[in-house]
Amino acid sequence: MEHSTYQKLMIAAADLLRQKGYAATGISDILAQANVTRGSLYHHFPGGKSDLAVAAARYSCSQLVKHIETACEVARTNGGDFHDAMVELCKRVYQLFEEHGNWRFLTVSATLQEGGERNAFFSNEARALYARLKSKAVEEGATFGLSERDSFMALRKALLLVEGGWMLARVVDDPMPIRSSIQFMEEEKQVYRYRKQLGLSCPPFDTEIDPLF
Predict the structure, then answer these.
(1) How many structural domains is the chain composed of?
(2) 28-36 long-range contacts, Cβ below 8 Å, gap at least 24?
(3) Fewer beta carbons within 10 angstroms: which end of the chain, N or C?
(4) Is residue 207 part of a domain?
(5) Least confident of 17-21, 136-140, 161-165
(6) Domain residues for 145?
(7) For residue 154, is it within any domain?
(8) For the whole model, what pTM was predicted?
């Protein structure tokens, strides 16, 4: 499928920001990868690299939402629950690492936390994207009969595992930490089921620490 100029720029920016981070990614790098002119870039993104970073982060979030949806479809097809879906999500992230063959890159959401010339705006945007993931978790979890809290906590744990594994994979230059996230999420699934069987609830969540949740 042929991408529009806007899409080419956004996808190129997402790819480069993952690989190099915000500070090390130049406008010329993005133009070369997207194979478009400088005038086209500023036509679609008047703020230049910072506008592109936000668009790339939104694109990255949309891709993650699609992976969550697919993971839930797989779980439903196999008669599983939402925690099975989160295991599947970890598997899909690992598969992406395997396909790309390059462990030394950031997630685009993490790129927004690096800084740049629009720190406060970037931070607010990252939080908005995270809230979107919460909404998706609640929506999908409800189809499995989970409460809003249990749905998001399951996704949150999966994200902590894959995001942490992603960063550790960069440190050790090896994909194994991402693969480990699958096993850890499997263990979390078993713990959740055991606690549910015993009628135990999860510890209360401190909203003062994280008001989003």
Answers:
(1) 1
(2) 34/5, 34/8, 34/9, 35/8, 36/5, 36/8, 36/9
(3) N
(4) no
(5) 17-21
(6) 59-198
(7) yes
(8) 0.82
